[in-house]
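Project outcomes to date are best conveyed with an example. Our students and postdoctoral researchers have been running inverse folding experiments weekly, and each run begins with a structure described purely in tokens. The record below, which covers 324 residues, was selected by the lab manager from last quarter's runs and is presented without edits.
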């Protein structure tokens, strides 16, 4: 009985001590007051810092919203075939382009069947020639035309700036550029003149340049002219700053191209080695390598090698192409 009484007394003492530690110790030791004091110091942040934080948060929210809107717009935007043909600088209608694509596809299919390539190979080559090749040509011509446009645009902006400083109106300065500039800059500025002649404001006509020439530099030019037409200001100074920005972007692009040429050369050598080795082996010992296209397993290996080579070339292209 004495042991039980001692055990009960010990347990009661421990329970009372625990309750006192939980409820009374923070009040007696001042720990609760210290915690509240630290919280008040943490809350007592300078008003300027709070304003900066709020502004930064709002700016981040706005930037995030703009990025989402831009990404959604780029995802939803589909360029019509007629616009892509015009951007490539070709004088073709949609019907003519589709007829040419169909003829190329049928010709590739018939040529493959005539050489004994088989139905599946003929269908694949015909689809690639009829659907992929014309659009690749459009993309190639579009990029080449955009490069020529970017090369001549800073000089054209300088001509406009000098004309404005000499007292000419903006429309007459654009006429001077349209008369003397090389292609495709001449045709694009002639389109601006024709659009303004039929009644569209000059600012809106310059802003539509981005639709025919989807480049940031063309968008900069249209925005500068449109803002000046609506709100006024020193147009020669704005266009002079734009010319400096265009030249700086051109220098940056050329610098990036020069710095990436070594990587591009290495990628070209690595990508061309397997076909070159295959050709040399075929020229030296054709019976040794002909199993790749005469035996079913060899054809499977050749197709797998082509897929892996395409993946490697795509990865190398992504690694050496830089956006700025």
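After processing, the design step wrote out the following sequence:
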């Amino acid at each position: 009985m004495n042991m039980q009484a001692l055990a009960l007394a010990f347990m009661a003492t421990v329970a009372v001590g625990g309750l006192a530690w939980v409820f009374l110790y923070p009040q007696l030791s001042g720990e609760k007051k210290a915690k509240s004091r630290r919280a008040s110091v943490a809350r007592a942040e300078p008003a300027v810092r709070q304003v900066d934080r709020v502004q930064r948060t709002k700016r981040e929210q706005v930037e995030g919203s703009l990025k989402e809107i831009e990404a959604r717009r780029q995802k939803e935007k589909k360029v019509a075939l007629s616009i892509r043909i015009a951007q490539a600088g070709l004088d073709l209608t949609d019907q003519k382009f589709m007829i040419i694509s169909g003829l190329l596809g049928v010709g590739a299919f018939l040529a493959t069947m005539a050489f004994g390539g088989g139905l599946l190979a003929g269908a694949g080559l015909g689809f690639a020639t009829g659907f992929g090749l014309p659009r690749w040509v459009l993309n190639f011509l579009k990029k080449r035309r955009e490069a020529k446009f970017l090369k001549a645009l800073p000089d054209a902006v300088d001509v406009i700036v000098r004309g404005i400083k000499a007292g000419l109106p903006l429309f007459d300065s654009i006429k001077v550029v349209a008369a003397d500039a090389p292609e495709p800059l001449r045709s694009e500025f002639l389109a601006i003149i024709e659009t303004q002649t039929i009644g569209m404001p000059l600012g809106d006509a310059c802003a539509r340049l981005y639709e025919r020439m989807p480049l940031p530099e063309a968008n900069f030019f249209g925005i500068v002219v449109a803002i000046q037409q609506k709100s006024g200001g020193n147009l020669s100074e704005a266009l002079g700053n734009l010319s400096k920005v265009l030249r700086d972007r051109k220098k940056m692009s050329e610098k990036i191209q020069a710095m990436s040429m070594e990587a591009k050369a290495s990628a070209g050598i690595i990508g061309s080695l397997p076909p070159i080795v295959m050709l040399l082996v075929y020229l030296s010992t054709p019976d040794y390598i002909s199993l790749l296209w005469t035996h079913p397993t060899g054809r499977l290996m050749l197709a797998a090698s082509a897929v892996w080579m395409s993946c490697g070339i795509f990865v190398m292209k992504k690694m050496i192409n830089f956006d700025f």
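The longest helix spans residues 235-284. The chain has a mean pLDDT of 76. The training component of this project remains on track.
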